Amino acid sequence: MKRTTGQDRSITSKWRAATRAVRAGTWRSEQGETSEALFVNSGFSYDSAEQVAARFQGEEPGPVYSRFQNPTTAMLEERIAMIEGAEACRTQASGMAAMTSALLCQLSAGDHIVAGRAAFGSCRWIVDNLLPRFGIEKTIVDARDNAAWEAAIRPNTKVFFFETPANPTMDIVDLEFVCGLAKSKGITTVVDNAFATGALQRPIEFGADVVAYSATKLMEGQGRVLLGAICGTAEFINDVLMPFQRNTGPIAAPFNAWVVLKGLETLPLRAKAQSASAMEVARFLEGRGVQMLHPGLESHPQHAIAARQMDAFGNIFSFNLKDRAEAFAMLNAFELIDISNNIGDAKSLACHPASTTHNNMGPEGRAEAGVGEGMIRMNVGLEDVQDLIDDLDRGLRAIGR
Fold first, then answer.
1. What confidence score (pLDDT) does residue 10 get?
2. Per CATH, which fold does 2-264 belong to?
3. Kind of pairing, strands 112-116 and 137-141?
4. Checking DSSP bridges between strand 349-351 and strand 338-339, what pairing results, if any?
5. What is residue 186's predicted lDDT score, i.e. its pLDDT?
6. Which of 3, 20, 132, 312 could serve as a FRET partner for 335 with CA atoms 20 to 30 Å apart?
7. Could you give the percent of the chain with pLDDT greater than 70?
């Protein structure tokens, strides 16, 4: 394959965000295709034995096996890295494969990790259950509390791991402070940025070392395929992550990578439009007396921090009702909004985290993480915002509000 001349780094580095989302990382074969090519093959042939030897030894660029890298996934990785402002990126089979790989590739028995209490249920499972099996110690902190991060540091602390905004409580972490603290102590920060993506927030600009994604969500945008991504320095990606990834195999499928490439072309448009609709919907709910968890609202205790580090506040928020029965009754009254545990979709979705995404944490774990029985998490899509408000009004009336 040959690259277009437009992929010269001296040129692409000048591109703005929307242009990068459409153009960055594009390769073209001799056919001159305008849409990125889909390479659905596992292996590759070579012109000579010397060539394949040179590629395996890293002396010549080019693919050797799709578990190592595939041309389609390589295009996606270049594009995500440019959107994120990272030196390099590697894709994974799913968001959870990305989170697992980002941690296990750098942690060993005897190491210590500090993690935010509010997180996706499977992320907490990794920290609470998987890492201790390998002799990795952990401390859980309220990630909103800067002093808690500093107090949790031990001589063997290797990683800070957190989400911002957090799933589903919408806790905000002060990126500049926490990442700066980590750097001063030689600790690596791993940030789950799935709720915002690089279209709305770029943690590396605030000092983060590693940014991990479920690209299944807003990046892909239409609920079609699974894919994860890890961004960081070229040294981290090539020397720390890649040996783990090559030999354990959590690689992204080329077709899934191609679908996400297509999703990225509209990511800035969707992220901004859905964020704007989410603000309208959130203000409607707050006006009806609902306890909102949305960092874009002035009532959110960390609104000022979110405004400082986010370009917009995203399309996902949560709100609290009285109890599980009230939450179920409201969900069951919807005629437009789907009950679904997915997020980032162009269709509006809502779910009850305590019985779905965070069910495996148990009552005590959910209470510690701030996930109440009356909580509903909502993904605002691209429908007409008034139709969404009408549906939410229908749900509120069903519970007498």
1. 77
2. Aspartate Aminotransferase; domain 2 (3.40.640)
3. parallel
4. parallel
5. 98
6. 312
7. 98
CB atoms within 10 A of CB 272: 16
Q: Residue 90: helix, strand or coil by DSSP? A: strand
Q: Residue 380: pLDDT above 90? A: yes
State the Cα–Cα distance between residues 25 and 108, nearest whole angstrom.
34
Terminal-residue alpha carbon distance, the chain:
60
C-alpha separations of 370 from 132, 291, 301, 303, 319 in Å: 23, 14, 15, 18, 12
Q: DSSP string covering 111-168, please?
A: -EEEEESS--HHHHHIIIIIHHHTT-EEEEE-TT-HHHHHHH--TTEEEEEEESSPTT
Instruction: List pLDDT tens digits, range 275-315.
Output: 999 999 999 999 999 999 999 999 999 999 999 999 999 99
Which of 373, 285, 292 shows the shortest CA–CA distance to 328?
373
Domain 267-398 has CATH 3.30.200.20: no
Give the pLDDT band (50/70/90) at residue 2.
very low
The C-alpha atoms of residue 274 and residue 312 are separated, in whole angstroms, by: 10
**354-379 burial by CB neighbour count: b if 16+ within 10 A, else e?**
beebbeebeeebbeebbbbbbbbbbb
For residues 36 and 73, give the distance between their C-alpha atoms in angstroms, rounded to a whole number: 10
- Give the whole-angstrom CA distance, residue 166 versus residue 117: 9
> How far is it, in rounded angstroms, from Cα 398 to Cα 116?
35
Structure tokens at 373: 């029985």
What secondary structure letter does DSSP report for 231? E
How does residue 222 score in pLDDT terms, banded at 50, 70 and 90? very high
**For residue 3, what pLDDT is reported?**
46
- Structural tokens at position 29: 């074969």
Q: Note the pLDDT tens digit of each residue in 344-369.
A: 999 999 999 999 999 989 999 999 99
Residue that wins the pLDDT comparison between 277 and 28: 277
**DSSP E strand stretches across 299-347:** 316-320, 338-339
